[in-house]
């Protein structure tokens, strides 16, 4: 009998039993579960939502939904004075968890297979659950039960268990605490809020239990949650062991602590009451009568006040009530804070004293208890660990697991710990006996030569999670040691299986030596490794035996190798079964854009759009076109949860589903769909919900653009000032706390300066966690926030301590030269260490910071390795500092560690105003030099190199360098041996930026080793990758390219337009493909080679296929003439640009630069924030100048920062002001002279500025005297509306000179032509600042006027 049948039959029997039971039977039945006196906690406000989401996880695991009967839902027994058993909600929740439409609700499930059950089963679970009055009893019942319903019950009590722990954890015994903690695990795994709430006071055994549980869910925690929990654990340890706190007192702007002040006031009030009572006893009759009179007067005043309340307007009453609520909230928060702080030292009520700096609190016991959270400690804390304690910890069972699955140990920390651990043993040989205990510390082992084969195998098995750049080199050396120990020095199939992820270090030449059967036996290792594309394609071809038809299980088994499966195979693959099991989403994580498009094409043949959209998520759903999404007919926010929507999809769905009715509860569910929130939606939020919406939005910051953040900030501040005009002048602590920090940093400068001293403590707390990267580097708010924080500290800069520097948090990064020069010695060093951690530094401060660095630490060439680790990032502030570093044995590793510590490169590259990564080219070049020159050359070696031929390139160097192979000289590449070229070319093929001379050398080497271009196989072309850029257009036409996968790979390279046309023609010649046969998959696979189609061919593209592929085609950057024709195709798909929505504008991507002046001006301002960033600098300056100020302001900071200097020169002052508002850096009105326009002579009659000129009525323009017209500054004349220019009439229009006309947009020129009576013919207006194109030569980069970008021509 099915589990669902069992459950429903039990339910029916339970109903019968309950209805037949008399009152005398009820107590005896309740005794079944009453061994604990812990009642159910009050239901949290979000209990229903959380429980539904957790139950949905059971559905994802394909657990059968228990079938409950309606009659049970209200039959729980309730005891007086106790919270009710929440089991009465179970049926309701089961009938409405978020579920895909193909999974029926419990009431809809058929049950045709029910069999009779023994009567004894009537006591099974359901009845017992309903009659438990205590939470631990219910948990015990769940623990002792089995079967699928158990999953739903565990998720049902998970949130309740966590709430009970938060409320009463400190009062529980160890067994109860452990029971509730285990029951809360489902909640901890998937539903923890971003900002953790943890028990304030726990005994150490309970703390240890918490750490153990959070260690089990470590992988599901975000980095922010891990850091919060780690800080909580540290605080609990310090309080329990050392009676001190790491939470320092922050200045409050008041003479005494707020709590002390509040206590004083209460004592004064109590004293007054006592004195009043004493006075009553002592005063005479006359005095008493006088006092009674006064009281009556006061009572009369109160009555009048009440009468006034009745008479006052609604607005006044609401305002007064609001103020009273704020005051009440502050009092409650103060009381709550008192309760949480607990008792402390006499000198500091409520909190223990601050722990002394550098206190040695880490001992072996503490480290063992902290588990993997130990790795989150800063490096300076590890340096203070006593060596003997670390040695004791190393021998404990917990040590290896403390360094596994932690996402990469920082290199400086890993090396320091490993060095200390080595010191625990008398000699190296003794240490080698403990190699298996290193965990992730094995990633930093630096002496593989000392290991034999068996020890190499032990170390290799621990390198699975290594993320540092040197781990591949270490794996390679260990593999070579193991291979050399094999008979004949070759790899055996057995070793291939054993190697794990280290198998990826094998070059193609060695992988090619294995039989397909051997590779299939080693699939467990192969599927987990990280492969380069050429390797993955080789392995996929051999593992699948070149078959044209594969099953879903075949593809799942490939793991990471699936990236190498050809599109032709995926198009025939039946993905429906994998979609139904949910495994397709796992598979799609590893696929390329082209592969996903091919899979979706097949799916859409088998299922309709609605089912497809409901069943898939992850990157696969982000590949769906807008038209497919519209067919799915989504209608609720719940349907958007758990899916990875792209930006265009998000805004389409949100406008269809929520429109302008955005609510906080909806925002919490949106996740990736938050990308589609528009400023219009934010501005439409009701006044009463603005703060809640702002808090909800900033709870998912990683989904928000800078534009959305700015809009949310402006809306919030406007709302608060509407609530109280002087809101920020007399803001309270609780009010400031309520403002999300990401929005607070956007507070207007004047408001920042006028924040009261009473909120200083709260302000400093919020600034310590602020992220300033959403502010432009030139924003005035940066310095205003810094000045306010310094004022809150109440000290001169010269008096700042190192603790003050820590308190400033990221605002340290904004300290200017005047501040830095005044710092004392203690703060001086702390500041430099803090500056080295900054994501951004003001370009104007870089020189002074670097000078301070040299004065403190001396010449960087004389630094020690520890100094380089601490402040090495500041060397990037100087253009020559890194390249001039002298050789040291440790330097290369230190620079690699520095590189890994820097934020990853932004994609696409951020504009200068928001850039967080400095130029790393000189650092990469230095690492290249240190890699290819592994030791300091002696004078004799230098002389020998000068007369000797070019040193040969080694394969090991190519493998280690990766993208840094771009620094080989053409001569070195030319002298590469054929063997090294054959084995390493697939690595060189991933380098995009070889210069023409390097490419020429590689071209010659290719022909020397592999033969003529027309004889190359497609497999060889795949290995060549971007080295193919070396071929001329004529050679490229002969290149053997027949698959879309090859085109997708080559599309990533930097081709000239002539080469793009040649590759397209070659593909057509080899495949017989016609333009009319290009489907969506083909258009996506072409990538930038779609730009190679002729103008006639573009017009022949299939409109339906173009619609499906448009989001990908729109990301390609084609020449201007091609883009204009692609624009015509976009108009066929979406209609006239004046009607384009935000989703459509985002989808067309770079094609938007093909719009002419009229079409650009017709766009709704709301869509400008959704133009993709790469398109902005490619809009012709004359066309951008045609935009209205309202359109430019709507660009938002993300897009406004992309406007380049050539474009700004064509803008009028009003437009520049609007652009400054969009960016968040007010533009100061000033003259903007074009370098090509003569300096104007002194003006007498043309002194009106842009605003004043634009304010003139069109009717007056015909009466301006003719001599004034040519003397109006071109930029000011360009600010006029077409209607004003047309009103000049023929007399004045004829006086407009060429310099003025060059600044006019096309619509303005048309209007001027009408005024003159000579119609203007619309044509391209090229910017005078773009160089005239010259004939293109082989291998040179030239300016492409139409495309407005540099391209390499061959």
TrEMBL record:
What name has this protein been given in UniProt?
A: Stereocilin LRR domain-containing protein
Keyword terms of this UniProt record: Cell adhesion, Glycoprotein, Membrane, Signal
InterPro entries from the entry? Answer: Mesothelin (IPR010335), Stereocilin-rel (IPR026664), Stereocilin_LRR (IPR048992)
- Location of the region described as Disordered in the Swiss-Prot/TrEMBL record: 245-356, 1327-1354
A Gene Ontology biological process in which this protein takes part is: cell-matrix adhesion
Per the record, the similarity remark reads: Belongs to the mesothelin family.
Q: Which Pfam families match?
A: Mesothelin, Stereocilin
Signal sequence, renumbered to the chain: 1-20
This protein's GO CC annotations: cell surface; membrane
Q: What is its main location?
A: membrane
Per the record, where are the segments of Basic and acidic residues compositional bias?
253-281, 289-310, 318-339, 1338-1354
Keyword Membrane recorded:
yes
Its annotated compartments are: Membrane
Residues covered by the Stereocilin LRR domain: 433-578
